[in-house]
Protein: Basic leucine zipper transcriptional factor ATF-like
Organism: Myodes glareolus
Amino acid sequence: MPHSSDSSDSSFSRSPPPGKQDSSDDVRKVQRREKNRIAAQKSRQRQTQKADTLHLVSTRLLTLLLRLGLCIPQQWGCETQP
């Protein structure tokens, strides 16, 4: 029985020529790097926002504790009242 060239050659015809494959891989790498760069930037922005929010909350809590006249350790940035 003769060998069918359709089944073996069709897989090769679907892949781009070696030169084009290299350039398409490069394009994918650049796109992936850009996507990763944007994701990292967003992650840093979220982290900064969380830190800012925590700082604001801690400042409000310290202010509230002072208004209530509660003693808190000096290491928290407030002096204790006698």
